[in-house]
Write a structure and sequence with these properties.
Layout lengths: L1 H28 L30 E6 L6 E3 L4 E10 L10 E7 L7 E3 L8 E9 L5 E10 L5 E12 L1
């Protein structure tokens, strides 16, 4: 009977050793944690978030190009003021917390965004941005979009399209 107990004890110790070895290998094979790297993106988050978001619906209607209609010829390096007339169909006035953001094309030396003037509900207003024509000849397009106090883009894009010659 002593022999059976010894064999049982040897088998128990061997099983325990095998189990511990397997657990140790599994632990060693787990990948080390890596630090997450977040790449910068171009987004509306660069504008400070207002403490009280607007509780209205923003709707913009394009009326006309006031200056530099599409296809206007401009000398290389010329600074010019592009201006659009729009109408505020929203149920709130535009003003503080409202911006015009560059969204695509050639930025033509302008900042990423500018504040827009106060435009009451139902009123027409002019939105403008100073641009600089590129030095090289060609056709250039710059696309801009309104961004509301609710941190959302709205309305159709406002386009500056020039020909440098």
């Amino acid at each position: 009977m002593k022999t059976r107990h010894i064999i049982f004890l040897i088998l128990l110790v061997a099983s325990f050793t095998i189990l511990m070895t397997a657990c140790q290998k599994e632990k060693e094979q787990q990948p080390e944690s890596t630090e997450a790297v977040f790449l910068p993106t171009r987004s509306a988050a660069t504008v400070p978030v207002p403490t009280k978001a607007a509780a209205c619906t923003n709707v913009m209607g394009f009326v006309e190009d006031v200056t530099y209609e599409d296809g206007t010829r401009v000398a290389p390096g010329t600074k010019f003021l592009k201006e659009w007339e729009v109408i505020n169909y929203s149920d709130c006035a535009w003003g503080e917390g409202y911006h015009l953001f560059f969204v695509s094309g050639n930025q033509m030396g302008a900042p990423d965004y500018v504040e827009i003037p106060h435009i009451p509900i139902g009123a027409r207003g002019k939105i403008s941005i100073e641009l600089t024509a590129p030095e090289e000849k060609g056709e250039y397009r710059s696309e801009w979009k309104l961004f509301g106090a609710d941190n959302r883009f709205f309305g159709e894009s406002l386009i500056a399209n020039i020909i440098v010659e």
